[in-house]
Structures are given as structure tokens and as C-alpha cells.
Amino acid sequence: MKFRNRLLIASCVFACFATAVFAQSPGPLTADPVYDKNCAKCHGKTAEGRHFGGPALATTTQSEDQLKSIISNGKGRMPKYAGKLTDEQIAALASEIAAMKSAAPQK
Questions:
Q1: Are 71 and 85 in contact (CB under 8 A)?
Q2: Partners of 75 in the beta sheet?
Q3: d(Cα 84, Cα 101) in Å, to the nearest integer?
Q4: How far is it, in rounded angstroms, from Cα 18 to Cα 52?
Q5: pLDDT tens, position by position, 8-43
Q6: Which domains are delineated in the chain?
Q7: Are the beta carbons of 63 and 98 closer than 8 angstroms?
Q8: CA triplet 33, 55, 30: central angle to 5 degrees?
């Protein structure tokens, strides 16, 4: 009986974990081909940040205007993308990052 209860509990835990993992669809930012081509290498495929790479984008404290400036002009080890991306692409990325930030769960 104990084994059956443990198996049932383990199955429920796995089902909850699998639902949480697979139910998350990528947001507009991570589904953006511009992000995927230019940003994902450093910030991660789901914008979670990468060790020794770019920070997580959902937790940024930068405003949308600051994000546009950073994307355009670079900052620290981040290269500048003015001239590589259009103003519209930069504005869209900044807007998507800001939207991701506002949708992130608050601690």
C-alpha cells in the first residue's frame, strides 16, 4: 500500500511539473526571429539570461526608452545594434522586453 501511495504522489508531482513546463508558450519576444537571431545567443532562448552572457530580460529595471538606447548603442559587453537593426526592429525589441518585464511575477 505504501508503494502505491508513493507511486501516486510521484505521478501527481510529475504531471504538475510537466504541465508547468510544457504549458508555457514562448512570449512575443522569444518568438521574434530578430530576437532569436541577434539576442538569444547571449540572453538565452527564453530570455532567462545566460551565465557569463547577457542578463535575464524579464527582470530588467530599464525603461523602454533606456532599452532602446542600450540596444542601439550597446552597453558593457553588449554590442551596438544601430545600423544592424532598423529603428522599428529596435523599438519592437524594447517594447517586447518591457512587456515581458511587466508580465513577470512580482516577488
A1: yes
A2: 78
A3: 25
A4: 29
A5: 565 555 554 444 443 344 467 888 999 999 999 999
A6: 26-103 (1.10.760.10)
A7: yes
A8: 20
